[in-house]
Amino acid sequence: MLGRSANHLYWMSRYIERAENTARILEISQRMALLPHVAKKGASEWQAVLEIAGDVEDYSKRYGDITAAKVTAYLTLDRENHSSIWSTIRAARENAHAERVCITSEMWESLNATWLEVKDLTPAMLGKNGQRDFFDWIKERSHLFRGITFGTMLRDDAYHFGRLGTFVERSDNVARILDVKYHVLLPSVEDVGGAIDNFQWGALLRSVSGFRAYHRVYHDTIEPRRVTELLILNDSMPRSLHSCLDATVALLGMLSADKPTEAARLAGELHASLHYGKIGDIFKTGLHEFLTIFLKRNNALSAEIQHSFHLAA
Amino acid sequence: MKAATIKPVKAKPAAKPAVAKPTAPKVAAPKLAATPRKPLAFDEMTAFAGNGPVTPEKVRDVYRVFAEWQATVPAKEFERKRKEAELLFRRLGITFLVYGKESSSERLIPFDVIPRIFAAEEWQLIHDGCCQRVRAINAFLHDIYHNQDILQAGRIPAEEVLINPQYRPEMQGLDVPGGVYVHIAGLDLVRTGERDFYVLEDNLRTPSGVSYMLENRNVMMRLFPDLFSAHKVAPVDNYPAHMMASLRALAPGGMNNPTVVLLSPGAYNSAYFEHVFLADQMGIDVVEGQDLFVKNGHVFMRTTKGPQQVDVIYRRVDDDYLDPLAFHRDSMLGVPGLLAAYRAGNVTLANAIGTGVADDKSMYVHVPEMIRFYLGEEPIISNVPTYVLRNDKDRAYVLANLDKLVVKEVHGSGGYGMLVGPAATTKERQDFAKRILANPGNYIAQPTLSLSTCPTFVSKGIAPRHVDFRPFVVTGKTQTLVPGGLTRVALIKGSLVVNSSQGGGTKDTWILES
């Protein structure tokens, strides 16, 4: 298929996934902010959110100090912020618009309808409670779009490039969410194992739809080590890094069927570290260090995908 | 493109050549298009029976079954079907972009649910006339880019061809596969009487509209399955297959399995949805200039598996923008080196470069002569009598009769840059006269033809509205005219402007099999 078309589909999926994950990050942050303890710590949490999902420099130029309300506004409907939900939905729709030949009409209609609703939203319309509804709605639209894609699209290269975007973006986002919790929100020693810590890890699990999964797998209280194991190494957990890399490797295998590509090799290498990795070793290296390396390798993988398949002219 | 106002053109035998001779009009034309004492137009359903209620004895044979059916259908039902059709079109995304507004917007072309119906013998006339014309034009293009016999014979003034900006010296001496320059032509026909058809334009460059022919039929079959079982309507849905076959047949060197692509200016072009639609139907890629490159005289597209050679390009980009090295240097739509690859015979372009010289409005007047010269036949369908303002006599006549004529720019299209004399104000006519005098060669004029009308569902019920017709002639190893075409309708009462950019709508067109 045309490199330009593949590129559009890859980014279409990445942007949808990014919008969903931004909604998830904001949701967990608002939940955490309800705790008196975190409220006391104040800005540092929202600083962390900005670091995962936005551009701190651009933010401080236009918004000044960091507050929950301002960061939320910046990441939801700010039209100048390229990574706001508003902008990522628009970018997804524009990529889809350019490739209406490659996607099904149901996909186009769904994404276009999402954009038409988001387009004219204003912060006032979201209100306070509306924000939670908005995040739920964004997640739902993303689920819907993926479902339509899965249910209607021919399994050709166009499909595979679209799916590839989903998993490359998802592993990036999940790694970032984990990193924030463990590094920036590093619990003070006396909090570890306490009610507040427990609540925070629970919120983190919920933000990646893993709360119930955790209890199914461990039948026990929430422990940081297990949460990270679940989100990094467990291949049955659909948002875990391992799971994302399973999918990425399979897709790149299909796309590289005619001749081996460097992208497939890189993905295989990264996958092996998760497939054969042990949580004990990860903690020995340090979780933050592990995640930083993962993000770097994941980025390199994305760049190599663009290169191996001639996505950009 | 077209607007014509009313003049009672006496029915001519189709075979008689229409020569543009300035003759003084016998009757002063009405001042305004809306004057009630307009001469009657031929109606597709009732011929010249008048505007009164449609009674069974007035109905032409070809509409008889439809009229009986229509009499049983309440207006409400038509309204319901119209809405349903609109929904279907929106869902299919068959929209077009409108230029000239502050921000261009996506619009639906209004669709009318009442079909335009032709009998088999009417279709035969159209078919033969259009095929004949395109054959002659292809012969003409081959000739002027080779020996120029027609110019040497003095049948067409040489300077009119050679200084025409659409004449491409780059094409001189180049042999194109099969000698086919015009693979797809979308001729615009108008009708004024039972057997009186005229060609208004030949549209030989990148004619659009065929997607509407196909989608209109799709929608009609969904809306009115019972009507289709009561009529023997010739199918149109093999058009993409015909087109694909003819594109493949004319690949360089007659290769077996050529790679065919559609070259589009991109998502912001007004006809982009048609590009996508046709490519989809033919199972080929839509590419933009940036997706192609030329290396060692061959054209390649950038695919995810590396460069892939391209052999046939169905291009929807005008000549001027095809190759920045050869034509407009700042074109972002084209492919540098494409002309060189084309001249080396390594890629087929459909349509060929340089077809525009045969379809500007000043060359149009010579098409009947081309038919005589190359085919030794008389034109089956006539031209509309046309005044060429470069000629002193024609110009004097036109300037004296601006209120009765339609004046068009030679290179204009889409209904822009024209004067509809009878509908214009004195001031508009005076201003236009100045523009003519400043550059007479840029204009032609035609009498305002009384376009036929067709029953159309409008807010007040079913009423006659003026229509034209664009069938599509596809030329490969053989010539095909799929039995159908695009009927455009002026939805405003009395209006003769059918262009979609000016509020015209479309209808499904049925050719009944005998």
Give the structure's gist in a few sentences.
Chain A has 17 helices and no strands. The longest helix of chain A has 31 residues, at 3-33.
Proportion of β residues of chain B?
Answer: 15-25%
CATH architecture of the domain at 259-310 and 312-346 in chain B: 3-Layer(aba) Sandwich
Radius of gyration of chain B: 23 Å
| Uncertain ranges of chain B | 1-37, 99-104
Sheet bearing the most strands of chain A, described? none
Global structural class of chain A: mainly alpha
Query: What is the helix tally of chain A?
Result: 17
Cα-atom radius of gyration of chain A: 19 Å
Query: What's the number of domains of chain A?
Result: 1
Runs of chain A in which pLDDT lies below 50 for 5 or more consecutive residues are none
Biggest pleated sheet of chain B: 5 strands, mixed
The ordered H/E elements of chain A are HHHHHHHHHHHHHHHHH
Strand order of the largest sheet of chain B: 3-24-23-20-19
Instruction: Give the largest chain-chain interface (CB within 8 Å).
Output: A-B, 22 and 20 residues
Number of strands of chain B: 24
Summed over residues and divided by their number, the pLDDT of chain A gives a mean of 88
The coarse overall form of chain B would be globular
Task: Give a count of the beta strands of chain A, DSSP E runs of length 2 or more.
Answer: 0
The span between the termini of chain B is 33 Å
